[in-house]
Amino acid sequence: MKKTSPFHPASPANPVRPVLVIASIIAALVVPVLAQRQNAPPEPTGPNVQGAATSPVGAGGVNTGRGRGPAVPQGPAPKLSDGRPDFSGVWQGGGPVGDLAQGIPKGEEIPLNEAGKKLMASRQSGDDPEANCLPTGVPRTAPYPWRMLQTPTHIFILFEGNIHSYRQIFVDGRKHPDDPDPTWYGHSIGHYEGQTLVVDTIGFNDKFWFDFRGHPHSEKLHTLERYTRTNLGTVVVETTITDPTYYTKPFTIKFTARLRPGEELMEYICQENEQDARHIKGPAGTP
After folding, report:
1. How far apart are CA 260 and CA 235, in angstroms?
2. Mean pLDDT for the chain?
3. Which residues contact 264 (CB under 8 A, 6 or more apart)?
4. Which residues contact 244 (CB under 8 A, 6 or more apart)?
5. Domains of the chain (ranges plus CATH)?
6. Which residues contact 152 (CB under 8 A, 6 or more apart)?
7. pTM, to two decimals
8. Strand, coil or helix: what is 100?
9. Dist. CA 5–CA 236, nearest whole Å
10. What does the pLDDT look like over 206-226, one tens digit per residue?
11. 243 pLDDT above the threshold of 90
12. Coil/strand/helix, residue 277
């Protein structure tokens, strides 16, 4: 019998979230996205919501049609015993899923150069590594929860989605290696600036996409992420992307993660009984 996460539509013990439908084959494909969790926080609405995301919270540019659920926990942002920000808990969102452009300021555009536009236009949705159970890379997120674990020397981000993978961030003062081996999550070093965690990453491979639309990157990609817990229930993630191979200049995106109190990460093995990828057809694009 196939084991399933409660986020998978085949799980008999949980309600099923609305599915993401690939636009080019609406009648033929459904992609498992998010099963309703009873404690899912609401999406913020209105222009005055503190730390409001530039895209649907938890969706990263994909409208999941989620129910409202309880309010986002209120209160001041907690701190560790040494005064540093405490990012503990299970979180949802914080990065692009459907469209990287959802995270840039209104009126601006992603500064693709001609090589980037050409590569992006050539991509087919079925070739999306994330759709084939491979890691999302940075800054893309899967539409599943994640948890951050902090130690004096390392920070780990644990992902429920896809292959149950993790990121490792060194906060022990080390530098980047001179010639890092290209990997899906790169080589990350971090430090704290007040109540913000700053993560500098290089050494990426060129395999992952930034989103469903297929925004590209090369092994020259350099990301600078800033994680700020603005209150008890909110983490704002700002990422500056630099990649001269496909972009004319650095640019910054901003997404918001929401706390999911009382929840734990579930086991979700994307490859187990995977039957969706072969049905994904047509040009890359948002569902």
Report:
1. 12
2. 80
3. 90
4. 220
5. 53-270 (2.40.128.20)
6. 171, 172
7. 0.76
8. helix
9. 27
10. 999 999 999 999 999 999 999
11. yes
12. helix
